[in-house]
Write a structure and sequence with these properties.
Length: 108
């Protein structure tokens, strides 16, 4: 379909697809449907929301914190690996002074 509706095919076929569509009955019917659906029903009221957000900001924050808390307890082996990795890296950088060869890396 995309190959047929390119500008090069339009010029080969001497057809302007946009013009064909805007002159079609489908286009006119769609435009009438849009006008019909835009108009609100009689007696209806505009939507009104008291706040910008559906919930106070504390509620999703609490949900995220609890999700992370339960995730940490559910997968305790991940916590052990995370802890051991941090301990290994801290020993590597602090005790063996890795990276002190870089000029200005360690304050005098």
């Amino acid at each position: 379909m995309l190959d047929v509706t390119t500008l090069s095919m339009e010029s080969q076929m001497s057809v302007h697809f946009t013009q064909l569509f805007t002159n079609s009955s489908i286009y006119r019917r769609n435009q009438e449907l849009i006008k019909e659906l835009i108009a609100p029903p009689p007696g209806s009221k505009d939507l009104y929301f008291q706040t910008k957000y559906s919930q106070p900001s504390l509620t999703p924050t609490k949900a995220c914190v609890l999700k992370q808390y339960w995730s940490n307890w559910r997968y305790s082996q991940d916590n052990v690996i995370w802890f051991l990795t941090k301990m290994l890296l801290s020993c590597w950088f602090d005790f063996w002074q890795i990276g002190t060869e870089i000029e200005g890396a360690r304050p005098e």
